[in-house]
Amino acid sequence: MPTPIAPHVVAQLVVMADDLTEPVAPGWQLVTATLVAIALLVVLITVVKLNPFLALILGGLTVGALAGEDLNDVITSFTTGFGTTAASVGVLIALGAIFARLLADSGGADQVVDTIVGRATGRSLPWAMALVGAIIGLPMFFEIGLVLLMPVIYLVARRAQVSLITVGIPALAGLSAMHGFVPPHPGPVIAIGLLHADLGVTLGLGLLVAVPTVIVAGPLFGTLAGRWVVVEPPDTFDTSRDREQVEEERRPSFVITIATILLPVVLMLGKALADIIIDNPDNGVQKALDIIGNPFIALLVAVLVAMVTFGVRVGMNRTQLSETVSASLPPIAGILLIVAAGGGFKQVLVDSGIGTLLADWAKGANVSVILLGWVIAVLIRLATGSATIATITASSLIVDLVAGMSTGEVSLVVLAVGAGSLFFSHVNDAGFWLVNQYFGLTVGQTIKTWSVMETVLSVAGLLCVLLLSIVI
């Protein structure tokens, strides 16, 4: 997080922000420009099948043009937002991808799975699978975690002689909840950056929200869904599991794996606790924790440690370690560009003044910012199928609404947006088809299991956030 800023500088920044968000056109024109741009995004992504990176660029230019801004000013706004977002969020996503690849290639992910699932029997299996999904999902993107867990889901369902859905849905709930609520995943990090939330506080509250949410959407709902849809597990991955068993002695131990996974979480939480308990920027301990608890430093430290625990200690030589790190970056290039373009789209919206109008409307209508953020994210999620686009758009439109809110309240708004971005995954979402194909489901079965689970996850997350808002 940034170094504390002197009060007089803060006052100057507030004045500058007010100047930037002054509406550039009448309210009806700005609202129309925003709605048309969002509709254009939906059509380009879902109908034309244009890459979201290009769609966001066109959407940002559309907002500025319809609002009557000078096109050069619009381009400046977009490129400024693009660069700022790439610099702040992009490096976190890249470090997270390196960490996840090291965890996967070292066998650490398999070690976690085998240790936890190996001790579970009968009715405890769905709970164990939810725990595995949450732990694996903590540092990994949803798609990577899903691919890693599928062999285990198949094997566990076959050994327990239960529906693939009974053990699969809890694991997916754990993965998805971490993706939506907990940094350093792209969605929460984007919302934190756009709304200027405290990462450590959001991380702590995100874990509080994720636990009950995973329980409801995972083991509890998974048991019901397994009765609705009975899917026999295939024999796929049997040989790969045998190979992994042979190489088991090269894996990092369970304790080392968990300690490495939780290292960045502990460092960021330590900073948040120091800010609350010590609350003295001049204190040496707080200064040190502020540095190592900065998300960039925390993840960098975690990656360096992982290169030892997940690399050197399992027998990787320098060449293998370099290849693993290098292989982790190309797959996330598209994500980085989309996220950065989303930052450009957001900056055009902010500079047009639509946020100011929305803030004035919300204050006059006495609408809860938490609920408003969730609803906007839900609508964009349903329209585009992208949790990232939903997070970017919703956060951009409520930037001015969080002004003056406490640190904890802003973090709750971030989590509400994250919950909304998970709502009802359907045919326009790549995750829908991943689950559909890996589980061998029909479209109807995928909706009755995966889509409903995502909806339960979203609504349960919102309810948890609303309950926390009573005491925060």
Give a structural overview.
With 472 residues, this protein is an all-alpha fold. The protein has one domain (14-471). The protein has 22 helices and no strands. Residues 1-20 and 237-246 have low confidence and may be disordered.
Bin the helical content: over 70%
The total number of structural domains is: 1
**Strands, count:** 0
Order of helices and strands: HHHHHHHHHHHHHHHHHHHHHH
End-to-end CA span: 21 Å
What's this, in brief?
The chain is mainly alpha-helical.
List the helices and strands and how they pair.
Layout (H helix, E strand, L loop, with lengths): L6 H14 L6 H21 L4 H15 L4 H35 L2 H11 L6 H13 L4 H19 L3 H18 L4 H10 L3 H30 L9 H9 L7 H24 L6 H9 L2 H15 L8 H11 L4 H20 L1 H12 L3 H16 L2 H11 L9 H14 L9 H9 L4 H29 L1
